[in-house]
Amino acid sequence: MSEYKTMTKEELLTEQEQLLKRYNEYKAMGLKLDMSRGKPGKEQLDLSNDLNKISDYIEDGVDTRNYGLLDGIPSCKKLFADLMGVDTKNVIIGPNASLTLMFDYISQCYTHGAGDTPWCKQGEIKFLCPVPGYDRHFTILEYFGIKMINVAMTEQGPDMDAVEELVKDSTVKGMFCVPKYSNPQGITYSNEVVERIAALKPAAKDFRIIWDNAYCVHDIVDDGDELLNIFDVLGKYDNDDMVIEICSTSKITFPGAGVSALIASDNNIASIKKRLNAQTISYDKMNQLRHVRFFGDAQGVLNHMKKHAAILKPKFDIVVKHLNEELADKGIASWVEPKGGYFISLDVMNGCAKRVGELCKEAGVTLTSVGATYPYSYDPNDSNIRIAPSFPPVDELDLAAQILCVSVRLACIEKLVG
Amino acid sequence: MSEYKTMTKEELLTEQEQLLKRYNEYKAMGLKLDMSRGKPGKEQLDLSNDLNKISDYIEDGVDTRNYGLLDGIPSCKKLFADLMGVDTKNVIIGPNASLTLMFDYISQCYTHGAGDTPWCKQGEIKFLCPVPGYDRHFTILEYFGIKMINVAMTEQGPDMDAVEELVKDSTVKGMFCVPKYSNPQGITYSNEVVERIAALKPAAKDFRIIWDNAYCVHDIVDDGDELLNIFDVLGKYDNDDMVIEICSTSKITFPGAGVSALIASDNNIASIKKRLNAQTISYDKMNQLRHVRFFGDAQGVLNHMKKHAAILKPKFDIVVKHLNEELADKGIASWVEPKGGYFISLDVMNGCAKRVGELCKEAGVTLTSVGATYPYSYDPNDSNIRIAPSFPPVDELDLAAQILCVSVRLACIEKLVG
Question: Phi/psi of residue A211, each to 5°?
Fold first, then answer.
């Protein structure tokens, strides 16, 4: 097989004819396959069922059933502190969704500011968004009317030349990052990129980076990526207050009923607690205790993640296998094979992604809404597709990946033959 | 015994001497008694331990462990809808703390408005606060810089003449209400008051009432108070969008790990879901299912509340007994004996409440911070004391109530003898 761009129109039409035959066979199967969201599969959820077998809800004299302990029970704070390599005092345990911690922090900056003046009193403000990125980050920014500026991702992380230039604008107030196994590309920021982020000198004194470390322990291979702990570096540049780190057990225990955590400097913890004190009496401490008892310690979490990896690896493999077999040498698509996280990011020929989504849908395969990996759901190249292989069983994925590959090839041929 | 105001200075000094003797005996006991917060006692928490014995987390094909169902699982929505006498479509199940639902709704109005213009873009705005009231409501308003205006409580609810007059000011944007067994007085709004509230014609089109029905099923006697369902009346006045009702199981199952719910008109539900969609993927559905399985239906909740009443009634009784015995005929204090809720509100002679708090503290009894029942922690009469009898065991309450009564008498004598 050769690159599509070098093929004659006639060759392409023959190829199209063969592919359509396959495509129609798939279509006739009346499938309903879902690769749209980063949802753990049932087998993964079952790994944590024992979490609920706890019967004693008292710890260190604290009755977790009752009110109190705004920032979480000490043992749960310690669990996250150990896991993330920070001090317990810099941890706040949050609700079941880390998204809520991020929304609430942006909301806090909007109404009360991260410095002297609330963001809502500063006219138009902007955030940097490495792209492709996580749609729910963009949704938060859009909700608050914060203008989003795309920054290209490289294989090392965000294009730091661009970031360093953009932060000279004092209306640029922050950036959303998924520094490990980025959503959707699975790229882990290099040490140099983390260091350059920590060293930023933004014109805005109230510049904040949301460091969404959603996949901090989510390796799918033994030699997973290593991410530099940004809190070990920030001090050197007097930037401790610049970063708010977020993580959760959504993809460790239960997506709907896990525990989230926020990690921040002493100053930021104090200002967040001030809001929290008006917002709640405490998050669910019984659930915090369940997690502590289930894992024992940070090593317990890491051991548990090996079980997830054993389930996820074959799912990633089957998708990558088909991408390699069907798309590798055609010059119409590229992807990174990630060592962890929840996604495979596929870039197809410009102007073809939406059409791929349509073809997949017609054949019964749901992808993440094409475009959603960009702010305002607008992918300027119409090229990025996010594949979420975690939820379907392997046999379904096997089919879904084939349908995806055929759809990519068909969409590109349509584009080339015009 | 006679009214203190009719006694001579000499008689008062004799009385003081006797009381001081008792007071010092209490003090010498080195007690540490807490009547500060409306926390259920251990015996109450134990009533719900079986909540955690659920082992199957699938319902109607929905795996509650996973992502999804933004507004809650259908069966939990139905449970609350039945309990509160509304349609399921008008219910959103929230997080473990109803306080968060209230904070978030005010936050939503502040950043996005309840009409055309966000509250944060309208200059100074105001809220009406029936007093005495719940300190955490005031904390939310203070956090957002919303000016609080005191409205006196009557035995029927807020002084509606005052409310009707105040809402003619278009900068008055709302009111916080605890309509059943109000915090702290235990007053249930009369049908006439509920009707007049439903019929309000505020100058502000974006006027919102937070109807914090925290004690909706929290009777401690068999013939508990009946509260008119405001959603049955609002339509008559074309005011459906004016009220946001809130409730929770904090004082039904676990204060730290219950389930909250918000009840609102179709319009309000839609606008709240728009924010929610940016703020979370779902609240803790496993916990919702635990509650559904534990109670079965609304009647199950009511049956369960009888068990709470059996524990709480003797606690209220012992406090009321001492108030009656020691304070009834001295003309220095008044209170309402509530049929439910979590508090007894004690009004002492003007200018004496803070001193009562000091005396209690010195003798080892912690009351709710005196003044906290008023906005800005400022009780203009320095007269209101909130008693929370739920947490301590009866024998401790017995002592604490005696110390409180002696402290009230001493503080008033100090004031009278000058």
Answer: -100, 85
